[in-house]
Design brief:
It is built from 10 helices and 39 strands. The protein has 491 residues and is an alpha/beta fold. It has 2 domains: 224 residues, Spore Coat Polysaccharide Biosynthesis Protein SpsA, Chain A (Alpha-Beta Complex), CATH 3.90.550; 197 residues, UDP N-Acetylglucosamine Acyltransferase, domain 1, CATH 2.160.10. It binds uridine-diphosphate-N-acetylglucosamine (UD1) and magnesium ion. The site of uridine-diphosphate-N-acetylglucosamine (UD1) has 26 residues, from strand 1, helix 3 and strand 10.
């Protein structure tokens, strides 16, 4: 086995997070498309550790439910009523095999920007040293609130002191404990058994392990990182937003470096699992969420929100909302389109302005350009759906499906009262209310025939401007020679 591969990662997630003022446990708040705990677990998994355990207590059942759905192989460790990070790690170890040896990493469930690369580098540096403990530290301009790293005169890490327990001189130290560590498993187990609760908070501090390691003659290293964002935890909603914005900035930067044009990263929000092809352009005000993927050369935005949606190469999507939809290569969507789950738009198809679709299979080159609702429908290749067409799929009790065949043409303002099947190569007259199937080559006319009633305006609306206009028009019709129009040769 690779010596730098840790035996286990223990993720601490038992704390209350009272400053969130939330009925949702802190670690289940989300940025970048997953929970804070989800980010921590991803980083932990990147180390390829044999075991990853999550220590839970506050809102235990909800956190455990999330863990099971996110990663079925996580080991759940319950913390008892003894408080403190030291106790949490002890409980984490208890849930792992008793004979576990090698390196154990400890991280927090509320530090979402910590990367897998940093944990791998920590594990490598720890393995390369002969230290029993390696602690990730950073130099902060404002270290308040953090535990401080106290070094001995030769510069070795001597101990970590919590701010609340620190002397005024120690509070001046700017090297902070990130709370992320690599430990030798045996040393960790032995040291934790000796950690007490004699401190201002009456808690069992994990940080005390550092001093105990030194007292037993073991070395402690600092793994200093120069990216303090990676050690920053979320304590309240202000920090949640700050870290969310920084995570997004990093995600956008990664895509830009891979050849994606993002015109305004500040107003573009991209979840961590989104993929974007080269030479795609993302215009301002766009959110790409969940498992969304964007094909090469596509143009998405402005003002587009896509959730778990696939956009094909060269497609264009503007001012649209789509959820669980598939947009084919070279297709055009928007502006002002709403694609609901189960929408599939074929290559070079179109879903235009003020069109809502759901469970709609709109095949290659088919168009629903204007002001329509297409729910529970299959629209064949090259078919054209006129403006204002409604597929009335719901009868108040059940949903029904309709289909429009290839290269068929549905006239504007048609209501298709589902279920109706329109064959390939058929026409439907504008304004129809269809309740029956239409065969190949037929035109369906499903509306009352037009009837014009002579003299109605003068009789029913005498003395109005409309009546006057009618009288003038009729006089002009009856004596065309009184106002000849030389340019207009029509009789
Ligand atoms: C801890 C460190 C401090 C460090 C800081 C970095 C200790 C004693 N102090 O302080 O040196 O600078 O983190 O952010 O370790 N947790 C549990 N069970 C508990 C207590 C905490 O699981 O009983 C979890 C929390 O959910 C959280 C993490 O451990 O994810 C840190 O706990 P927190 O109370 O925030 O520790 P700090 O006081 O910030
Ligand atoms: Mg904290």
């Amino acid at each position: 086995m690779n010596a730098t591969r840790p035996a286990a990662v223990i993720v601490l997630a038992a704390g209350e997070g009272t400053r969130m003022k939330s009925s949702t446990p802190k670690v289940l708040h989300r940025i970048g498309g997953t929970t804070l705990l989800g980010h921590a677990v991803r980083a932990a998994r990147a180390t390829r550790a044999a075991h990853v355990s999550v220590v839970v207590r506050h809102e235990r059942d909800r956190v455990v439910e999330f863990c099971a759905a996110f990663d079925a192989d996580l080991v759940i460790a319950d913390q008892d009523e003894v408080k403190g990070t030291g106790r949490a790690v002890e409980c984490g170890l208890d849930a792992l095999p008793a004979d576990l040896t090698g390196t154990v990493l400890v991280t927090y469930g509320d530090v979402p920007l910590l990367t897998g690369e940093t944990l791998v580098a920590l594990a490598e540096a720890h393995a390369a040293s002969d230290s029993a403990v390696s602690v990730v530290t950073a130099h902060l301009a404002d270290p308040s609130g953090y535990g401080r790293v106290v070094r001995d005169p030769d510069g070795h890490v001597a101990r970590i002191v919590e701010q609340k327990d620190a002397s005024p001189a120690e509070r001046e130290l700017t090297e902070i404990n990130s709370g992320i560590y690599a430990f030798d498993a045996d040393l960790l187990r032995e040291a934790l058994a000796r950690v007490g609760t004699d401190n201002v908070q009456g808690e069992k501090y994990l940080t005390d392990v550092v001093q105990i390691a030194r007292e037993t003659g073991r070395a402690v290293s600092a793994h200093v990182i120069d990216d303090p964002w990676q050690t920053e935890g979320v304590n309240d909603r202000v920090q949640l937003a700050e870290l969310g914005r920084e995570l997004n900035r990093r995600v956008c930067e990664r895509h830009m470096r891979e050849g994606v044009t993002i015109v305004d990263p500040a107003t573009t929000w991209v979840d961590v699992d989104v993929s974007i092809g080269r030479d795609a352009t993302v215009l301002p005000g766009t959110q790409l969420l969940g498992a969304t993927s964007i094909g090469e050369g596509a143009v998405v935005g402005p003002e587009v929100t896509l959730t778990d949606t696939e956009v094909g190469a060269g497609a264009q999507v503007s001012r649209a909302v789509a959820n669980l939809a598939v947009i084919g290569d070279g297709a055009v969507v928007g502006p002002y389109s709403y694609l609901r789950p189960g929408t599939r738009l074929g290559a070079r198809g179109k879903i235009g302005g003020f069109v809502e679709t759901k469970n709609a299979d709109i095949r290659e080159g088919a168009k629903v350009p204007h002001l329509s609702y297409a729910g529970d429908v299959t629209i064949g290749e090259g078919a054209n759906i006129g403006a204002g067409t409604i597929f009335a799929n719901y009868d108040g009790v059940a949903k029904h499906h309709s289909s429009v065949g290839a290269h068929s043409f549905v006239g504007s303002h048609t209501v298709v009262v589902s279920p109706v099947d329109i064959a390939d190569g058929a026409y439907v007259a504008a304004g129809s209310a269809l309740t029956q199937d239409v065969g190949p080559g037929q035109i369906a006319v499903a509306r009352a025939r037009q009837r014009n009633v002579d003299g109605w305006v003068e009789r029913a609306r005498p003395g109005t401007r409309t009546a006057e206009a009618a009288a003038r028009a009729r006089a002009a019709q009856q004596s065309p020679s009184t106002d000849p129009t030389p340019e207009d040769p029509t009789p």
